[in-house]
Design goal:
heterodimer; A: 445 residues; eight-stranded mixed beta sheet; B: 290 residues; three-stranded antiparallel beta sheet; 8 helices; 10 strands; metal ion binding (chain A); metal-binding (chain A); GlcNAc_6-P_deAcase (chain A); hydrolase (chain A)
């Protein structure tokens, strides 16, 4: 910013024109909340004995508020010394509390399921998320994606929805993971058009096409795909131009192909280590992206940090090689958040234990049921990283990945007032969404 | 005038902060009888503010019934520029305490009519009954507020051109680029400060030693504007050992001995805030001022 240069004396006659008004700005009479006595994660540092000011659901600059509005805050809350951080952002979650996002239904039922998850996730500190859809048929996408449009959160409706993470179906059948083989797409020979057809970006008539392409396109925030499939690599720039974050996953790509995907615009790796070839020293494959010497920045990578999907040592190796790229995800499935017991979820009978879920009667994992705050605590334990690094892995990094770092994942004037208060041992104590405190006691799922 | 000599910057800061706290406590301000405090910026008062914030956080000092008037502000600098005096006061004091925003007065360096702004400032001071206690520091050239050498000792709040020395000294806050330093400021006048019922000047560091000597041991002189304090009935200078380096040994010994007399013969708890003796030989209450 250019500040006024010192004036020549002989030019000075009256007050110089200045870049700011000397009369007070128009009154904003909306209620102002001040949260005092907190330790705040601000500007990538932890500030002791600080305070946070909130108005209209956003963080405001107290300096401006004091000098221009000349008001004291209307409400002063005491954080009692707790650590206050931005609300967590979840980039990969398939469902929770018995809800499965990939199962289509009528809008009312689907919305009810969404709200159940949006509210329940607040308990674990997640205030924004991307509902994830596993590989499905085009019909399912056409039904479900219009229901996953981004929407802001609130203390009543729960976490904000950032858009859908469509994991597949343009993935490699050799790394299908838990997805259904028969809905996979083996190629995208028509490029971007194939993506549009499968996800339903376009309808029958030009008008429907335009409408659907605008509406549905905005529902998709992240696409996981395998760049080695025919036509996928060439489609990446079009997807990125459409505002979508492209992620490499469920792939057999070698390192060359993976690096090409990054230079085409891919910025994420879906659950690193899982659904990709293991590390081989002469061709590290997708994992090799962490050692890439491309001119471009290395991509972010998701890590399911339950200690089960990825060995703690592997977590540490990934972190040590690329600490700025880590994004913790849960990849949780519908049993997450349910109390221990037997459940029928979709066409699966599962037994949920305290922190894992198995196919009933077996020891086979039926997916992940870790929560994001537990991922963060595990991450510190596995890597001995700093507190700030662990916090940024669930706040700043996913925000930057998704291009929303002006409003989410940070505490700074103008950002949404989504806040999580953590105890010293990093358990969620209080949650604010859009500047309003959530009554965690009323969330029963 | 009292000259209180303390060991170092920390001790000086603590002494002044405690004095302010006790003074306010003694005054017992209310909504109808607020305590009007004049405040400086710069490196001298930073420690004082830190201690005042600590007192506030410990519940020993409330700013609810305190009205403040700052000494000065740069002309043409946006209010939220990190080097503006608004920013300084916000981050060093106001954001940590319970002062009411409408009770805070700082000159507006971006007013369309600067002269009117200065006039209004004087009127506001008069409207609240004048300043009870004015804190201040000095520059190496002995200036108080921005009353640079040559300023009238009878001056009031006005626009001042900053001396070259001051601009050079302040360049360190503006990327060491003197073209970025404002060369005009609004400042209270020497007389505005001396109109306060009590004045307390904080002087620390060897680089202020010459100024302190000029202001205390030599005459009232417009080249060292803080020397006007010699004519104030309740003036106090609090300084550290380093700042006494240019004073005569006799001067330093004299002021130190007064305090020693207090402590040894009278007892530090029997000394009033202004250094007067509360009671003598257990007899009738009386106060003697030096």
């Amino acid at each position: 910013m250019q500040y006024p240069v010192a004036l020549q004396l002989h030019n000075f006659i009256s007050a110089p024109s200045s870049p700011e008004p000397s009369t007070p700005l128009p009154e904003n009479t909306a209620k102002v909340i001040k949260i005092t006595n907190c330790r705040v994660l601000k500007d990538r540092k932890i500030v002791e004995k600080d305070a946070i000011w909130i108005q209209d659901g956003k963080i405001i600059d107290p300096h401006k508020f004091f000098w221009y509005q000349k008001r004291l805050p209307d409400v002063v809350l005491d954080a009692e010394g707790l650590l206050v951080v931005p609300g967590f952002i979840e980039a990969q979650i398939n469902g929770a509390f018995g809800v499965d996002f990939s199962v289509p239904s009528d809008q009312e039922t689907y919305d009810r399921g969404l709200m159940k998850v949006s509210r329940g996730l607040l308990k674990y500190g997640t205030t924004s998320y991307c509902p994830t859809i596993v590989s499905s048929s085009a019909a399912v996408y056409h039904q479900v994606l219009p229901l996953l449009k981004p929407r802001p959160g609130s203390s009543d409706s729960g976490a904000s929805i950032l858009g859908a993470h469509v994991e597949g179906p343009f993935i490699n059948e050799a790394r299908v993971g838990a997805h259904e083989l028969k809905v996979l797409q083996a190629s995208a020979n028509n490029g971007f058009q194939d993506f549009k057809n499968v996800y339903g970006f376009e309808g029958d008539t030009p008008e429907a096409q335009r409408k659907l392409s605008e509406e549905n396109l905005h529902s998709v925030k992240i696409i996981t795909c395998a760049p080695e499939l025919d036509g996928v690599m060439e489609s990446i720039p079009d997807l990125v131009k459409a505002g979508i974050t492209v992620s490499v996953g469920h792939s057999m790509a070698n390192t060359l192909q993976a690096e090409k995907a990054v230079s085409q615009g891919a910025t994420f790796i879906t659950h690193l280590f899982n659904a990709m070839p293991q590390f081989h020293h002469r061709d590290p494959g997708v994992i090799g992206l962490l050692g890439s010497r491309l001119d471009l920045p290395r991509p972010y990578y998701g890590l399911i940090c339950d200690g089960i999907h990825v060995h703690p040592n592997s977590v540490k190796i990934a972190y040590d090689s690329h600490p700025e790229g880590v994004i913790l995800v849960t990849d949780a499935m519908s049993a997450m958040g349910l109390s221990p017991g037997n459940y029928q979820l979709g066409n699966m009978d599962v037994t949920k234990e305290k922190d894992r879920v198995v196919i009933e009667g077996t020891n086979t994992l039926a997916g992940s049921v870790i929560t994001l705050d537990a991922c963060m605590r595990n991450f510190i334990q596995f890597t001995s990283c700093s507190l700030i690094e662990a916090l940024e892995a669930v706040t700043l990094h996913p925000a930057v990945l998704l291009g929303i770092q002006d409003s989410k994942g940070v505490i700074k004037p103008g950002a949404d007032a989504d806040l999580v208060f953590l105890s010293d041992d990093l358990y969620v104590k209080r949650v604010f969404v859009a500047g309003q405190e959530v009554d965690l006691g009323t969330i029963h799922v | 005038m009292r000259l209180v000599i303390r060991k170092d910057f920390e001790a000086v800061s603590y002494h002044v902060a405690k004095y302010v706290k006790e003074r306010i406590k003694e005054f017992a301000p209310t909504a109808t009888k607020p305590f009007v405090l004049g405040l400086p910026t710069g490196s001298s008062p930073v420690g004082v503010y830190r201690n005042l914030v600590k007192f506030h956080q410990a519940g020993e000092l409330s700013f609810q019934h305190i009205i403040t008037f700052n000494m000065d502000e740069y002309v043409g600098l946006p209010r939220d520029h990190p080097e503006s005096y608004h920013s300084f006061m916000w981050s060093n004091l106001f954001k940590h305490v319970d002062i009411l925003p409408e009770n805070v007065h700082i000159l507006d360096g971006n007013a369309t009519d600067l002269d009117l702004e200065c006039q209004r400032y004087e009127e506001k001071i008069a409207a609240v009954g004048g300043i009870e206690l004015f804190l201040g520091g000095i520059g190496p050239d002995g200036h108080i507020a921005f009353n640079e050498p040559g300023s009238s000792l009878n001056s009031r709040t006005r626009v001042k051109t900053l001396a070259y020395d001051t601009i050079v000294a302040n360049a360190r806050f503006f990327d060491n680029d003197i073209t970025k330093v404002p060369n005009l400021a609004l400042t209270v006048g020497v007389a505005t400060v001396m109109d306060a019922r009590e004045v307390c000047i904080i002087i620390t560091g060897a680089h202020k030693a010459l100024a302190l000597a000029k202001c205390i041991e030599e005459g009232v002189n417009h080249m060292w504007t803080v020397s006007a304090i010699q004519l104030h009935p309740r003036g106090m200078v609090v300084c550290d050992e380093d700042a006494t380096l240019e004073l005569h040994v006799k001067t330093v010994n004299y002021f130190k001995s007064i305090e020693k007399v207090h402590e040894q013969l009278i007892g530090s708890d029997n000394v009033g805030l202004q250094g007067g003796v509360r009671s003598w030989r257990g007899g009738a209450e009386s106060t003697y001022h030096q």
